[in-house]
Each structure stands twice: as C-alpha cells, then as structure tokens.
Amino acid sequence: MPPTASPLQERREPRALTGWPGQAYDAADIYGQRMQGWMPPLFSADTERSPYRNRIVSRVRDLVRNDGWASGAVTRVLDNAVGVMLRPVSKPDYRYLAHLSGNSAFDAQWAHEFARAVDSYWRAWADDPGRYNDAERMLTFAQQMHLGFRHLVVDGDALAYLPWLEENIGLGRARYATALQIIDPDRLSNPQNQYDLKNMRNGVEITDAGVPIAYHIRRAHQADWYNMSETVIWDRIDRETSWGRPQIVHFFEHHRGGQHIGGTGMLTPVLQRLKMLIKYDGTELDAAIVNAIFGAYIESPYDHDMTAEAMEGGDNSLGAYQEGRAAFHEQRNISLQGSRLPILFPGEKVNTVSAARPAGNFREFERAVLNNVASGAGMAPMQVSNDWSDVNYSSARGALLEAWKTLKRRRDDFSIGFASPIRIAVLEEIMEADDLPLPRNAPPFLAARHAYARCRWLGPGRGWIDPVAEREGAILGMQGGISTLEDECAESEGRDWEETLDQREVEQKAFDDRGLEQPEWLGSRNQYPGYIPPKEDA
C-alpha cells in the first residue's frame, strides 16, 4: 500500500505572493531564489560610511578624472547649480527687527537702503581683485563656492575654514580680516588615524547628544609627499567661537539621522554601472580598431606549430612547403592602379574580416546605462549623454524642468548649509567696521544676526528652450499676479531684478540724451526725474 502522509505534517504552501510560509512580506524572504543570499548589514549612518569612505571617494575621483561621462555629469551639475557667479541679495527681516526694537523705522524702505549698502560691502570682500577673501589668495568667493560644491558632488563633503587674518589689512590690500579657505575633505580625519569612537567620527568631534563641536584637520594631505612632516600633525579647531562666529563650516547631504559625515558623492550609487560601461566601450573600440586594421588574411593548410613538429620528427616536407610559400610571396607584388592583386601559393585562400562592430545592441545598452546614471544623479538623460538627436521640445522641457527641481534644491541646500554661515561671519565684521544705515535702538548684530543676514542666493538661471513662448508666458504670469519680476529674473536669468531696472533706466536715458526714438522693447516712457524731452525739428 502506498505510504500515507502523517496527520502531523502540514502541506507547506506560500501564504504571501512568493514568500516563505509564515512571512507577511516578500521582502523578508531568505529562502527563495530571488532573495536568497541578500543579507545586507544594518549599520548606523556613520558606520556604513566611515570605514569605506576613502575607497569610495578614490574610485569616484578616478572616474571623474578619466571618464568623459562622469566628468561631463559633474560639470553639468556644477554649471547649472552654482556656476561661478553665486552671490547673495540681502533681504533683511525688517518686521522682526521692528518688533524686537520697538522702532517702526525698520520698514521696507530701510530694508532696501540697508540691503544696497550691505551688498556693496559684500562685493568689496567677495570680488576683491587681490583675492584677500581667499586665505590662499587665488579665487573669488563665487569660485570658492564652485570648488566647495565640486567637493560636495564628488566627495560627498564640503569643508571650509574661516581664519582671522588681521595682517592682511592695509592700504591697497585687504579691507577685512575675515578670510575663507576651502579644505580638502580628505584632511578631516581622526588624529593618528585612530578608529571612530563615541565622541569622534572621522575627524568630527561630537557631544553625547551628537552635536559637532570641533573638527580635527591634518596640516597636510596624507599623500602630500612634499610635506610629509605635516601629514602626522592634526589641528583641533572649534566649530565656532564662544559668541557663535563660525570657524569651520562642514556641509553634506543628510540621508539619515545621526549622520556626521558625507563620504558618498553624487555618482556613488551608479559607480559600478559607469565602470562596466567604460569596460564595454573600451572592448568595442578595441574590436573596431582590430577589424579596421586587419581587413583580410591568407589561410594555408599548415600552421607554424605543425611545421615545427614535423621538422623535429625528421619530416622536411612541411618545412619546405612553408619556405616555398615565403619565397613565392617575396617575389610577387602585382597591383592594378594601386590595388594589389594577390596570386596565391597552391593550398592558400583569402578570407575577409567582417567588421561587425560595434555590436548591434551597443547603442541601446549604452543609452540604458546612461539613463540609469542620469536618474541616480538627478539629471535629464540628455544632460549626461549630450545627445539631443531624439528629443523634441515637449520632452526636453519636461525632462529639464524635473532636473531643474533637483538642481535648484541642491543649490538652495548648499547655500543654506555652506554659503550662508560664511556670509554671517563676513557680515559680522562688516557691521563692526563700516557705517551702515541703522535707526536708533537697532539691536546688535549678535542679538539678531539671522534678521540682518537674511538673503536670497542667486546662481545660474534656468534658461530658455523656446525664448519667445517662454518669455511670453513669464509676462502673462507677472500680469496675472502669479509671478513677479524678481522671480522671473532670478529663476530664468539668474539676475537681480533691481540691477535689471537700473540698467533699463540707463538705456532709456541714453536714447533720450541722443534724441533717439525709444524702441518698443524699452517699454513705457516713464522717464527719470528732471527729464526734458528733445526738441522737435522745425
């Protein structure tokens, strides 16, 4: 009789879609073929980054140095997010200052005058032709922000030091003692390369509550062979002074709570695919070159190994055959109008090489990988590939608008976390050193620095795909009250609206001074005060 199943044995059937019995989620399956062996570690935010930070960063840098796709992606993000013209436009919170001081003189008119004065002093520091804003005296402030943002995108961290350099102040030299130095994040590390501890995370010293209070910076990069004595010395620099002035500014994208370092740049999630694409590109190129060089070959019935074996065995017939072939071809060089006509030795035949390169699916494979890279980097696919051949206006505008959201978020995030603390330190000195328009009972800077330092950061504009249609849409938005001139100038052109109006006033006056009829693009003829219309010819 056939054996019967024991009543204690239950028929094991999946209770979820594909998971093992007893599991409510397929994602928890550890026995199925799809999920078996997939057991990633559950690390803290710092533990999953610190031990592998140097390995990841060095690989990303190698790609950016040597791969056109990676280098182009980084360049595109830098150019669209910050460029080299990142600058603040002051927007002091006059309402807060009025409530704090009880002085109604803190109004919109005062805010306008204060902003113009502060911005002019800021430009004197940020665009100093002597580059005294830079502790190394090489870059303007906007160029330093470009460098800091590049470190953020590639390395995952942006790090800066704000030294006080009074020795730079003098006639024809610096106006302010505040300077800025961009630091290579590699130099942020634990003293003597010790392991991370409870209050030390990859050079960031934290309190028990997780607040960064100090940073340990190597005096020289660990691979700076020309300055080896400094590579084993660390300086401990407080995050800020006792009154809150920033000394070290450290910024990175926060992906988890309790995270104190970045260490993973924009290309980290797609690093493996980019490396595979490089190998595939190289293999296809090598094969194409070989096919281009070797167009045809002659096949004989015997190869050199067979000839050598025959000669070792005392049989000279194969050796004589090969020698005869060589002598035959040495004397034959017949051509017809530059094209050689092969006359073959008995037993030989001509074969051609089929140049089937690149492979038929090469373009689609490359496109799929680059789409993955673009998605991971928060960019439009055509921005990475720089291939606009299959793009129409609607698809391009939709893709670029989505990419612009990410680029603008990155710029705003970087401005808030990195550029604004630097500006606060500079503005503190400007408030002390220069005569700014302040009404009576004005609160000191330290009592309301967030109100005095409030600003809007301007970077590269979004630009236009169809300038006519999109500018008409911008005008309709302003006329309908859903947009302003400030918004349109900042978003589309990356310009300050007041500077735009000032320039229009200058151009209107130039036409009037010359007695020229103003073109329609100058708008209405609301002239500057004291305008006298030109005399008409008799």
TrEMBL record:
Region feature (Disordered): 507-538
Top-rank taxon, per record: Bacteria
Single GO term (MF): structural molecule activity
GO biological process: virion assembly
Biased composition (Basic and acidic residues): 507-517
Name of the protein described by the UniProt record: Lambda family phage portal protein
Source species of the chain: Acetobacter lovaniensis
Lineage: Bacteria, Pseudomonadati, Pseudomonadota, Alphaproteobacteria, Acetobacterales
